[in-house]
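Task card 7
Instruction: Convert sequence to structure tokens.
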Amino acid sequence: MKTVALIISAAACVVAAQVPAASGAAVDVRFCPPGQVRVYPAESQRGVQSLVLQNALVTNSGSSPLEIIEVEIGLLQGDRPVDVRRLAGADLQRIAATGPRLQSSGMLQLASFQFCGKALVPDGVVLAGPVLQAKQAMLITYQPFLYRGQRDALRLTVRARSGDAGTEVSAQVPIRSDTARTRLVLPLTGTWFAAVGPTLHTAHRWGLPEEFGFDFVQLGEGTSTHRGSGARFADYYAYGATVRAAAAGRVLAAVADIPEDPAVLRNPTDTAESYGQRVQQLQTELLRRGGAAGNYVLIDHGNSEYSLYAHLQPASVSVKPGDDVKGGQSIGRLGSSGNSTEPHLHFQLCDRPEPLDCAGIPIAFDGISLPYADYPRPLQSGDIVFSR
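Output:
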């Protein structure tokens, strides 16, 4: 079963550090998303937290060649690095090779949502490394950390050489371990399976807006999500379920006219490989055309917190932009429109009023129970969850 909703996004990027180096070189460090790195509990009883640095860019903004010798990523308590990762030698070369591959394949444009659009890698910048010619840059992606206790900031230090002179540049962003200010209920009632969520082994955690979002499906006999062969959307237990606003707010956007494509459903004769190839082609085309969220509702809850309810049934959306909604109010029905491989609800909370231009915010649901959890804790990927 694959229920991932690829609704990832761009977020504005900032220059975190720009320090002159010797011999006419200069080192520029940027983070994406900018301003902060957010965490999600990995194991609450033992205080284990998970963090992913999505993107960092190191640019030679000077006029002389620059060789990056080592990149150090440290998680700080106060000013003291506690968890340190050093990227050098073969590891650094492997990481540096990712950027040119993404650039040459066109993925920086097709998946610009994941790389902060042109704010991270502006037009004309060539990705390379570890040796950077003038105006070239090295992209660092997907750096995960697990730790116990509190961390205050993430610091990235670049050690480089230009000619015979060495240089060291550091930049840092704060680490936030809080959840959303908005008090949220699960946008569905009854018993559900959180098929995809913020856990590191599922795809959401590696995308900017959906990093802390969830995909919800329903399970039937034998843990199947559908009756019979699952050849029709109506075969799926979740299909048509009422979707409700997770909190009070104002509707900013509502789309209801995106059709559902039965070609995304897996046939009994499909192998994992053939199905994966077909889905990849369909999803790539959706990204080119836009409309990955399918039919959706976007609600403003204040405090720069915006909830997204994606892949709804065509013509089922019952609200319009400008409507004020109450928490728990019906806003549509669960479907499989847009970038969806089977009927499910994709729900995320973001920091900007756009489904495709935001960074995810960790969610804490009120009024849920986890019947197979050993103790009260945040919802995780793979949980059975009940909500009234």
